[in-house]
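Methods — Computational structure assignment.
A single polypeptide chain was analysed. Its primary sequence is given first, followed by the predicted tertiary structure written as structure tokens.
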Amino acid sequence: MTDRDRPSLADRRETPDVYQPAEDSHLLATAAREGVAAGDRALDVGTGSGYVADELAAAGADVVASDLNPAACRQARERGLPVVRADLLDPFRDGAFDVVTFNPPYLPTDPDNEWGDWMETALSGGEDGRAAIDPFLDDVDRVLAPDGAAYLLVSSLTDPDAVRERAAANGLDATEVEREAYPFERLLVLRLSVSGE
């Protein structure tokens, strides 16, 4: 059997290559829909299936979806969304968006137990769960329009206080706008805005 004939690790785990909507997706979409207005320019970072971006579009926002995973980009495009293949916020211009949403990979992962496929990229937040969250917080103010806001989903597993501290260090106010409890974690949505705005 050649490598081309061998099923991918995701197939063997019976897991898709694209993160599909779950409780966290719904919580983020709910929070963001309350904060978006018709005509707002919105960016859904790490869009996965495109669910959150689709919800923003349904609320009247002019949405762009982005993801690093090419399969996620295809799936979001199939939903009719404009898509950019991107690593977080890198290709987007300063002040471009009124609303930014991000459901990051947030599960703390032991580096010795990583499985090395697109689903890991969608789920693994590194050892502290903040491997994608921290660089997002370091750059999100750049792409926000004046009076813009970002909606970031975080888990109790990622130390929300550390997330708030990183946000504050980047001049961002972090206000909790949604919360749901599950047996092993709490999910929170933080609304991030530039301090003083």
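Note: The domain at 9-194 is CATH 3.40.50.150 (Rossmann fold).
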